[in-house]
Amino acid sequence: MALENVSLRANGGERFNWKEITVTAAMKDAARSFSLSVTEPGPPGSEPFVYEPGTEIEVLATGDLILAGYVGDYDPKGSATDHSISVTGKGKGIDFVQCSAVHPTGRIEQKDLLGIANELNQFGVTITCDETLDKEPAIQIPQGDTPFNIVSKLCARHRLVMMGQADGSIKLTRAGKDRHSGDLVQGKSNILSFSSKISDENRHSEYIVKGQVSIGTDDDALSPEGRSKDEGVTRYRPKIIIPSGSVDKKRAQEIADWERDRAAGEGRKASLTVSGWRDGEGLLWEPSWLVSCVFPWLRIDQDMLIERVTFKQGADGTTTEMALVDPRAYGGKSKGNRSSQSWSMPE
């Protein structure tokens, strides 16, 4: 695969020819991350200092934006014969992730998930949602907690994730809505390495969700409960979950099913390294997209969900490392599942 022409734009300038490049985007990360390094041709201090921490930047791959955010660290180093710099940073959503939520009342009422996220968003980050959601009756804002943590817990109820986009925005989305072209097949020339991990370490025999609602006095209001069994776990391994906010019986059941599927999916993962950063149609690999995978040695023959991509370019070539998971772990469907029994999950 051809090298990507990676550039970093900052302070009105644009720099190319980086020696080592890493960019990571993941479904569970509301801010993408990057690391770039280069050997400077001139003596230390001879070039303008344009990558001061906090500087707004854009990272592009052959003209396609892959990250918009801020410099986090600028690390120069040198010796008697050379001088190099490395620059790392995060997408624009990083403040929403790391900073505490400051709210005048500590309580938000009658807003949907996007409305809650935007009310907690004092950082100028664009937040979008591609789902239509019901309003939450009321939520409390824990002192010191971050907007990301608060909204992420609510996302779990709706089987959504908060994912950082290339333009620095945050998207509340359901996984598996898009698909990459072609198949990833064991033995093809673009497959450099592959592995899988099948584990039941964090699976439980039954998930019991105990909620509460702010209105009503019957049993469903005072002690709503949802239960979901994982028939794939043969030992007695119960787990009780106490969700935040107002949770009725229907929502408690949805959370129980979600927690069951997520736990099973977390134990059914695969990792691939492929040459290049793009699929057969020239699109950059994207987290939350589906891709067909056929790997007999891993007992996989089904659609898999891309959970994380790490783009790398350097002395070892131009590669993409992918973390894959069964789509059902994020509320999706595993179309055309012909994998072995070891990959079985609750339906």
Keywords:
Phage tail proteins - horseshoe like beta roll fold, mainly beta, 13-stranded mixed beta sheet, globular, 347 residues, 40% strand, 21 strands, 13% helix, three-stranded mixed beta sheet, Phage tail protein beta-alpha-beta fold
Report the end-to-end length measured between terminal Cα atoms.
Answer: 39 Å
Number of domains: 4
CATH topology category name of the largest domain: Phage tail proteins - horseshoe like beta roll fold
Quickly give the structural class.
mainly beta
* Overall pLDDT: 89
Low-pLDDT residue intervals, each spanning 5 or more residues: none
What share of residues is helical? 10-25%
CATH H-level superfamily of the largest domain: Baseplate protein-like domain - beta roll fold
Q: What is the alpha-carbon Rg in Å?
A: 23 Å
The succession of helices and strands, N to C, reads: EEEEEEEHEHEEHEEEEEHEEHEEEE
CATH architecture of the largest domain: Roll
Q: Count every beta strand, where a strand is a DSSP E run of 2 or more residues.
A: 21
Question: What's the gist of this structure?
Answer:
The chain has helices spanning 94-98, 113-120, 147-157, 219-222, 249-266, and strands at residues 6-10, 13-15, 20-26, 33-39, 56-61, 64-78, 83-91, 107-111, 127-129, 136-140, 161-164, 170-173, 179-185, 191-198, 206-210, 225-229, 238-241, 268-275, 290-295, 300-314, 317-325.
